[in-house]
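Extended Data, panel c. Modelled sequence:
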Amino acid sequence: MSKKYIFSDIGEKLTSNSGILQLMDDLGRPLPPGITPYRLGGGNPARVPEVEQMYRREMERIMAQPDLFECLISQYDSPQGRGQFIEAVAHFLSKSYGWNVTPENIAITNGSQSAFFYLFNLFSGSFTDGETKTKKKILLPLVPEYIGYADQGLEPDIFVSIPAKCQYYADNTFKYFIDFERLEAYLLDNVDVGAMCVSRPTNPSGNVLTDSEIKRLASLAAKYGIPLFVDNAYGLPFPNIVFTDNATPYWDESVVLSMSLSKIGLPTMRNGIVVADKQIAKALSNLNAIAALACGSMGQAIAEHCIASGELVQVAQKYVKTFYQQRSEQTLEWIHQLFQGCDYAVHRSEGAIFQWLLLRDLEIPTKELYTKLKEKGVITVPGEHFFFGLEDPVSSCHGHYDKCLRINYSGNREEVYSGLEILAQVYKKYRK
């Protein structure tokens, strides 16, 4: 009989069931034999041929240079990241957008998921200042928010969230907005906020904060002396999965901007790029040394010339954005067709790779619907996981808490359509 080990409190927290564990497990674990999979869950990006061709060319360039490949696989980079890659990123951002960014403002992490684990635990939990001890939280100005944040705090209850405003439209769509009045009131009345955090585009809803909204958040961060984390995994300037015209890249010294190579074709390379105040960038580098020694070099080397030349941004604009916008429009058309006659709505698709589907007259929670769909091979992500940091998400979030599903539309067209078709059939079976 195997021994049953007892983990530490932190160990128990980090190894217990979580939404992100369920999501990633669904992404990689095969279904039982005989069940056809329809992968509408997870955050796996699509394979865009023009992106893959660019990276293949870069890999061939690496292989053609004597000893370069061998150095990449045999030598650690510094905990901050690969020097040439960091310089390329800093030069591109400062030249393209006029930002006061130097290599000291940049840290590379093993994906943006790791970056936010570091950031959340740098700015939340227990603080000691001389004889004074305080507890601080991460404030989310807009929920629902990314499932992968929810369990990243080493200490419990590190998140507090502001429910979104919601506007419904006649075409079976709706849209979330930041409730700035409520947000500003919270900041005024509470001194326990260590940082604010938003995703742009928002995961799961595909909402894109406008330039005026992001600047207003940055202004509030500066006013209260806290950083604003902006999760740009799907955003600008790359991968540019943004379908609106009133959003441009933004950074100032109150903003910690997290970018990623994952959604522009390199998800398995696990390279996140953080642009931040120099003190924060240095702290992330130090954390890298302790947690990981260094980050993977290959993804940085493959993308380095593409960023330096501006090609990565051009490919994002010409091919990646176009690919996902067409997929989004097609998926929305299918949803309206398949759910006709039902009481449903879809969040306006402004970016990212998801549709956020509201099933108003569903008689069972979406966690239960998720289980019934999985029995038929359809993998989705139930909405309950995205409403965290709230005392009462059921009553404070427009009735959306257990009535929404996140659907990834980036997969094979036939698979997406067939999955939606089964979803509509099962939903109709469990309507009130």
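The mean pLDDT is 92. This feature is highlighted in the accompanying rendering.
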